[in-house]
Each structure stands twice: as C-alpha cells, then as structure tokens.
C-alpha cells in the first residue's frame, strides 16, 4: 500500500468514526492532496524513512510553503503513521523521529500601536470592522464570531457567551456546530474597544432592520448576518478580509494578530 492510499483511507475513517469534524476532514484532504501526495504519495508505506520526511519538508519549504502549513501536513501524516504503527503496518512512525520545522516567531505580527490600527480598521473595514475587532480582542475563531446570536451578547456586562460555531464544508455547506468541550463553551469578557464596536454595529443593524420593516432582532437572531438573516459564509468573509489585509498591509489570516493588551 502506498502512502497516498493509506493516508486517504485514514482520513475517511477518522471522519466516519466521528473523530474529526467534516470541516477538519476537508482541510486534512486538502493537505493530503496538495502537500503529501505530490511528494511522497507513491512511496510504499513500509519504506518511508526519516530521510524521506526530511526531504519532504525541504521540498515544501523550497516551494514557498510556510512552516506553519508544513507542520499541519506533518501532523496529518504523523497521525496516520501512528495508526499504522499500532496495527503493525510499519515498524516505526518516522514522523516522531523527524520533527516538523519550527514556526518562526515573526509569522505572528505584534500590533504595538493598537489605537492606530483600530482607527485604520474603522476607516477602511466597513462591515468587517465589528467582527474583526471581536476576533482580534477575544481570540474567537471566525466560525464562532459568525455564529454569535443577539441573546449571547451582553454589552452592559461586557460578556460574550460562546456556545456554537459556523462550519462550512463542500459536503454540507454552511451549518451550525454546537460546542461540546469546555474550551469551546466559554464566556469571554470584552474590552471597552470591543464593546464600543458592537454597540455601533447593533445601532446600525437596528436602523437597517427598521428600514426594511423587520423590527428589533430576536435573541436567536445572528449578530452578523445577511440582510435576510441568513448566516454569512465563513469562506466569503475570510476572502473579503484577505482583500482588505492586502490593502492595509496586515496579515491575511482572519485576523491572525497579537496585540499589546496594555493599550486595551
């Protein structure tokens, strides 16, 4: 059996068994087809060596791939080889012998001038401003931000209740996913800057709804949604953020930043 056949089969099994979400399965398959298969996919599973993994990392790096993405692909291959090792299909998991490249610290952009960056966002981000501020100052994932409902946001207390997330896959489209772990179900205290951004967003949202004859939002209504109340597509929002990031020179990940919180 080749590496490609085995890893593809493991991803399918993990998804079928419920060990990974459909969204993660989709991402794993992208890593398999784009980063693993073209380089070591035809290699017989039992003949993969530490040197093969080392050369694979070098090929990905020379192809311009970031260390963070190489690490993601390495973990998928390593998880599959761990299964193979447990079942006796390989003698040793070579991904444990050859570690993934370290992620340089400069891949994380530190925002020192927080007021200046926020002012820039306010001037150019438009509808992305409020969700970007929430993501930036709470650490919430994009899917969690887009799944926020009116009843889960208390601006008087400055608290957001995270209970679900939006998940978008080719198989199922956009759907809600309830948080099942303690880390996923959490309350987050908002800094003043995020409270102000959400107050402005709610004011604008209410004005728009009244003009459309929709009345005040219900507790179950989404805080960030299309005009008809349908959820926004995470991929579309992420793409819009990437276009904006190119214009203002900030990271394209939505939004992968660290802030000097002393200014918050």
Structure description:
The chain is mainly alpha-helical. 50% of the residues lie in helices and 11% in strands. It contains ten helices and seven strands. It has helices at residues 3-16, 22-40, 50-62, 67-86, 94-97, 114-124, 129-138, 142-146, 192-211, 234-248, and strands spanning 109-111, 153-154, 159-162, 164-169, 173-178, 186-189, 257-259. The strands form three sheets. It has a three-stranded antiparallel sheet, with no helix packed on it. A two-stranded parallel sheet has the order 1-7. Strand 4 and strand 5 form a beta hairpin. It is elongated and about 65 Å long. The model is unreliable at 257-264 (pLDDT under 50).
Topology summary:
Blueprint: H1 3-16, H2 22-40, H3 50-62, H4 67-86, H5 94-97, E1 109-111, H6 114-124, H7 129-138, H8 142-146, E2 153-154, E3 159-162, E4 164-169, E5 173-178, E6 186-189, H9 192-211, H10 234-248, E7 257-259
Parallel strand pairs: 1-7
Antiparallel strand pairs: 2-3, 3-6, 4-5
Order of neighbouring strands in the sheet with most strands: 2-3-6
C-alpha end-to-end distance: 55 Å
Structural class: mainly alpha
Shape: elongated
* Poorly predicted runs: 257-264
Averaged pLDDT, please?
87
**Helical content (DSSP H or I, runs of 4+):** 40-55%
């Amino acid at each position: 059996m080749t590496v490609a056949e085995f890893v593809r089969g493991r991803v399918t099994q993990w998804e079928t068994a419920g060990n990974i979400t459909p969204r993660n399965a989709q991402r794993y398959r992208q890593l398999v087809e784009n980063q693993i298969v073209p380089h070591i996919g035809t290699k017989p599973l039992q003949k993969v060596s530490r040197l093969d993994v080392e050369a694979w990392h070098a090929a990905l790096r020379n192809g311009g791939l970031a260390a963070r993405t190489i690490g993601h692909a390495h973990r998928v291959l390593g998880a599959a080889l761990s299964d193979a090792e447990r079942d006796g299909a390989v003698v040793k998991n070579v991904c444990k012998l050859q570690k993934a490249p370290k992620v340089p610290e400069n891949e994380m952009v530190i925002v020192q001038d927080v007021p200046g960056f926020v002012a820039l966002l306010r001037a150019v981000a438009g509808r992305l401003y409020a969700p970007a501020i929430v993501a930036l100052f709470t650490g919430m994932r994009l899917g969690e931000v887009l799944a926020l409902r009116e009843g889960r946001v208390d601006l008087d207390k400055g608290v957001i209740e995270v209970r679900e997330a939006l998940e978008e896959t080719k198989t199922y489209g956009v759907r809600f996913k309830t948080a099942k772990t303690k880390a996923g179900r959490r309350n987050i205290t908002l800094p003043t800057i995020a409270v102000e951004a959400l107050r402005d967003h709610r004011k604008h949202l209410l004005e728009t709804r009244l003009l459309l004859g929709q009345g005040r939002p219900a507790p179950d209504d989404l805080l960030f949604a299309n005009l008809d109340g349908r959820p926004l597509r995470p991929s579309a929002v992420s793409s819009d953020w990437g276009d904006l990031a190119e214009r203002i020179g900030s990271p394209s990940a939505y939004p992968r930043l660290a802030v000097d919180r002393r200014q918050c």
